[in-house]
Design brief:
The chain is built from eight helices and six strands. It is globular and about 60 Å long.
Amino acid sequence: MAFSPALSRLIDAFRVLPGVGAKSAQRMAFHVLQSERAGGERLSSALAEALQHVQHCRRCRMFAESDYCDICSNPQRDASRVCIVESPADVMALEQNTDFRGHYFVLMGRLSPIDGVGPEELGLDVLRDRLQNGPVEELILAVGATVEGEATAQYIGDLAERYGANITRIAQGVPVGGELEYVDAGTLSQAFSGRRPL
């Protein structure tokens, strides 16, 4: 059965969301039209407003409604310590679960030449300028332990070295409450090689 053009466009629009396939998109579209029309209007309005007003912070590339985000604008934050993360979601996770009071730099991805993602797409020219002009003493790498994450970490490490910034990396390994027999080999190896004095 063919859907009307408007319904087909709505289903296709939902498919831009990560992890949403054809069936999920269809279910969402039907739900909004069947029982959440007011919610759909709010969603549409909020999305249009965010697309119009939300941009990238000029210093850290986090989402903001002005030139600089709340973190970069806060004089109480330590601008000499910069945590490098892959996404805005990582910033939120660190803000909610740690006592980090420095600044961030959001890559919006990781190096992946096969996907056409190079240093320019990650804003590493902005980071280079920040290292060159700002009082950055420590770069803290909080990127994933994937092949692309490792390549990104290496590239940023080389960049930091050129400008004399210390570089550290968040610890990786066995999760709290995890049992060794259930931890994958790569994670266990990383945890063992990254051991520290008690």
